[in-house]
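Entry type: protein chain
Record version: 2
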Amino acid sequence: MGKIQAFWRAYLDSLSPDIAAPDSYEVWSFGMGAEQADALGQLVIEGTKTATCGLLWEYEAEGEPLPQPGDHSLITGGNGDPLGIIETTEVEIKAYDEVDARFAYEEGEGNRSLAYWRQVHWEVFSQVCRVIGREPSQTMPLVCERFRLVFPK
């Protein structure tokens, strides 16, 4: 059994009998590249990062389903090893300019301010837009996701 499957099995084994075990999960890492995967994954484990977002247009371009409340994700570090399992608790589609200070704080990155969030995410979403042939704008739609760490606790 590989590391990913063993980690998932350890999570399932940790559930009390009265909790229904999820039947599926996605495996992914935060950020772009190994360094960001490690840093952002650590913020999740510490409880600092409880939200994330992606560009709706990217989901559409890649034919990826949107996250849904109750979804489980096994988060990996930059080397592909499992770090933790999160459960999606809320998903909202918001325009870039509608993201508020609370959400920026919950993303847990940098100084956790809305100004920092806007600067960093504008750069990231502008790069994604170039790749998928879209123009970034203040009203570009974002998939804003809140989650909770369910394993390890």
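Comment: The chain has one domain: 3-151.
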